[in-house]
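Researcher: Next entry: Glycosyltransferase (Durio zibethinus).
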Amino acid sequence: MSFRQQLALRFHRRRSPPSPPLPTCYSAAPPLPPRDASSSSSALMSPEISMLIRRAAVIFTLLTLSALLLYTATDSLRSSSVSLSSSSFARIFPSSSPKNPTQQLEQVLEHASMVNKTVILTTLNDAWASPNSVVDLFLKSFKLGDGTHRLLDHLVIIALDQKAYNRCRIVHKHCFALVTEDVDFHQEAYFMTPHYLKMMWRRIDFLRSVLQLGYSFVFTDADIMWFRDPFPRFFPDADFQIACDNFLGRPDDLNNRPNGGFNYVKSNNRSIAFYKFWYSSRETYPGYHDQDVLNMIKFHPFISDIGLKIRFLDTAYFGGLCEPSKDMNVVCTMHVNCCYGMDSKLHDLKIMLQDWRAFMSLPPDLKNESIISWRVPQNCSLSSLRHFDSPPPEMDVHQEEED
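Model: Predicted structure:
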């Protein structure tokens, strides 16, 4: 090597600083291959893709939870609907209710009761429950009567079938469904048919249960019009007092012919024993209804043995078509008895309400003169019944339906 070459080599080594020593644990990695454009772009987009994936996962989770909640809510609603239907059915048909029907009855009675645990009771089936039928005229009489409107607060309608119960819930606030297994009471029960007898005896047994709950009651058929408060006319010391088809003049005369459509009964041991005896007597006298059986057992020694005090209500105050009350100034109730068929009853009930309204429209001095008397019976007329004189001016019987 020439002197010039050696000098150039030395100058080059002086220009390049020495490399620092490598650690002993370092091993040189092979050179990385150059990155192409696609791999560089993929590395650059990976944070955005990761964010999108996370968002998609969150959305999917939310959708899954929403679907699950919707399914749960639907299933719950379905269960609630079934439960509600069962609950409604139970209210209409207490015998199928998990709640004790006696407790249901006691609750209804408690809400309707007067302060002395007295209620007014009537029974209703579908035949008498339709619009513009017996029940509407019955309730209207309380509203037109003298001091009777407030008594509606204490009236309980005992429905004998589902349609009657539904109708009751529309027109009145105190309703109870009394259902008898294997018996359908929704049709009109014609007098003395087997259907009629079952319904009458079911009523007697039910009234016994009311007495056993500690409630006194006034029972009234729905074809009885209430024109005045009857309580002042009741005997304060009687256990059982009942209206009459024919009143002979003395309230303690057992020969009076009672009518089971209206009675006032106080709850005590004597009345409960009497109703049990009355109901059991249906087997002693098969084929007879409750009123005929009462006429037979009222002379029975058992009545005096238990000390039951019976009083018969004067038809002057508690009249009916069998024996109408003559004086509208004192009448409390009027019964469309001695009458057969729904159409006949409806016709004469409407006439009766018209007569009462005509009387109530008179000034006091004319009321006292008794210039108006009943125009009934008409369609309910029997050969033994008669019209009374001085009818009011002729009125349209259909007018009552429109009022």
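Model: Note for the record: The chain is about 45% helix and 10% strand.
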